[in-house]
Amino acid sequence: MPGSTNGSNATKTMGVVTVGGLVLVTAYTVALGSNGWLWFGWVVLGLITLGMVVTSKST
Question: Are the C-beta atoms of residues 8 and 57 closer than 8 Å to each other?
C-alpha cells in the first residue's frame, strides 16, 4: 500500500543489516578463522529477516 511504508522500511533495513552481517562474518572468517557462534548468529538474524519479509508480504 502506498500509505504504509513503516513495515517496508523496517524490512529493508533488516535486509541491509543481514547482508552487512554476512559480509562481516565472512571477512572475520577469512581473516581469523571460522567461528561457529558468529555463523549461528547470522543464521538467526537471517531467519528473523525472512520472517519479517513473509509477514510484511501477508499484510
Answer: no
